[in-house]
């Protein structure tokens, strides 16, 4: 279950609440993955430099919302105002590998990053998936420029060996402020059609729909029906279309499309391709806009998908677990074992994380798998953590194995409890008692004054 968001936030700060945007109030099963593509994130130079050193306010905001619900930030990529974030449930982490990011500038002939695309790709249970968040050129007359820019973004190559090109991924999601407009019809006809909810009258003049019929490189992209109002351009904090002097014509600028590679390859061989052969399928469950958000002149759009995967990977590379009861009163041990083909490294480490951790660097403490090893046999190894590193107050925690070669978490333990440090609690109680015993003297001395 994948929930994808695209939103041109118009340099605004995050809103107070995103419950409906992320469908957190949905009665159905929870999402496995959130993919959030933003455009026009505030990129004034001071903001951008501070965001390079620290997470930007939008990333922190979504981490704060999603980490208590058991999601971690898997990856992110930013290019000026373009930001792409991926959050995933803990349980899937060991089956997500080969994560790479890329960005392509197309503004000012490729020298400026105000327009272009940011991309994250990965292997998910052995299937290659690519997410591409784009902000294409504005204005009615720039359709050809939009198409040229998207073609350029599609041609980009990830750094690294044996990584497929974007169109060679099993599934490619393309979304963002694509800036396609409604051609030919005047503003009055467009607004009247919208007011009467006769959106179908406008579909054939939507520039992206028209381009999909003509351009070969677009024909394999699929989109759900546009059964929501055009999402641009609104007066701020309202659902009223542009009342400024420019009176921009409404348009479906904010879109989500996808492409399944094996469907493209077999589309021409109808009848030869059985359902059993297909190892991955994508189903769109929901494609809607969210009219209640008014921080920018665009409304956010979300697509909720079901990805059905026949797992090519069903075993984690590393399995690990805590040994015995853990507390800060003594050193503790971790058991782990790896599959024979696992490419281990001296730089691999095991981190202790709170169950609500935000990302891979959000560990409480860690142990190097080689330097802190205490025993080893052909089936498993043991690593120790010092008592001094274990949180005194205890709580609910996880262990994660981080692979330096794969640059990702490749093993995760079941949640477990660390017991509070009884020695420390005893000391705290003794200190409280002694300070309480002294209080009457203090009160008397104050009374003398």
TrEMBL record:
GO molecular function terms listed in the Swiss-Prot or TrEMBL record: inositol bisphosphate phosphatase activity; phosphatidylinositol-3,4,5-trisphosphate 5-phosphatase activity; phosphatidylinositol-4,5-bisphosphate 5-phosphatase activity
GO biological process: negative regulation of glycogen biosynthetic process; negative regulation of insulin receptor signaling pathway; negative regulation of phosphatidylinositol 3-kinase/protein kinase B signal transduction; phosphatidylinositol dephosphorylation
Coiled-coil annotated spans: none
A cellular-component GO term for this protein: plasma membrane
Superkingdom as given in the UniProt entry: Eukaryota
Occurrences of domain Inositol polyphosphate-related phosphatase (ranges): 1-313
UniProt xrefs under Pfam families: Exo_endo_phos2, SKICH
PANTHER family listed in its UniProt record: INOSITOL 5-PHOSPHATASE, INOSITOL POLYPHOSPHATE 5-PHOSPHATASE K
Family of this protein: Belongs to the inositol 1,4,5-trisphosphate 5-phosphatase type II family.
Protein name per its UniProtKB record: INP5K phosphatase
Organism, as annotated: Galbula dea
Gene for this chain: Inpp5k
């Amino acid at each position: 279950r994948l929930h994808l968001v695209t939103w041109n936030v118009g340099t605004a700060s995050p809103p107070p609440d995103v419950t409906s945007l992320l469908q957190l109030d949905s009665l159905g099963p929870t999402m496995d993955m959130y993919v959030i593509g933003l455009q026009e994130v505030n990129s004034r130079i001071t903001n951008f430099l501070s965001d390079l050193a620290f997470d930007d306010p939008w990333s922190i905001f979504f981490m704060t919302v999603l980490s208590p619900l058991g999601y971690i930030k898997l990856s992110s990529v930013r290019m000026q105002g373009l930001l792409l974030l991926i959050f995933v449930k803990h349980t899937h982490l060991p089956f997500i590998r080969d994560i790479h990011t890329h960005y392509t500038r197309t503004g000012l002939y490729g020298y400026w990053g105000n327009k272009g695309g940011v991309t994250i790709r990965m292997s998910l249970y052995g299937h290659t998936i690519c997410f591409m968040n784009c902000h294409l050129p504005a204005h009615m007359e720039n359709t050809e420029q939009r198409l040229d820019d998207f073609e350029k973004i599609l041609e980009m190559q990830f750094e690294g060996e044996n990584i497929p090109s974007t169109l060679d991924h099993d599934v490619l999601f393309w979304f963002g402020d694509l800036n396609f407009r409604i051609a030919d019809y005047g503003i009055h006809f467009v607004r009247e059609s919208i007011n009467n909810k006769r959106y179908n009258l406008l579909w054939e003049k939507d520039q992206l729909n028209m381009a999909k019929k003509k351009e070969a490189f677009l024909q394999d992209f699929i989109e759900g029906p546009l059964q929501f109002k055009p999402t641009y351009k609104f007066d701020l904090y309202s659902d009223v279309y542009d009342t400024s002097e420019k009176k921009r014509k409404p348009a479906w600028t904010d879109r989500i499309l996808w492409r399944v590679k094996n469907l493209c390859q077999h589309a021409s061989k109808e009848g030869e391709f059985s359902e059993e052969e297909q190892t991955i399928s994508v189903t769109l469950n929901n494609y809607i806009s969210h009219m209640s958000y008014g921080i920018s002149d665009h409304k956010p759009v979300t697509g909720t998908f079901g990805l059905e995967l026949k797992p090519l990977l069903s075993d984690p590379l590393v399995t690990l677990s805590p040994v015995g009861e853990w507390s800060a009163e003594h050193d503790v041990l971790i058991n782990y074992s790896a599959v024979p083909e696992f490419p281990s490294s001296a730089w691999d480490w095991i981190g202790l994380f709170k169950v609500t951790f935000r990302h891979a660097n959000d560990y409480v403490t860690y142990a190097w798998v080689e330097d802190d090893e205490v025993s080893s046999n052909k089936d498993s190894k043991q690593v120790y953590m010092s008592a001094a590193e274990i949180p005194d107050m205890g709580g609910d925690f996880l262990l994660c194995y981080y692979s330096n070669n794969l640059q990702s978490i490749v093993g995760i333990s079941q949640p477990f409890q660390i017991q509070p440090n009884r020695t420390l609690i005893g000391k705290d109680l003794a200190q409280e008692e002694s300070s309480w015993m002294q209080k009457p003297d203090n009160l008397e001395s104050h009374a003398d004054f």
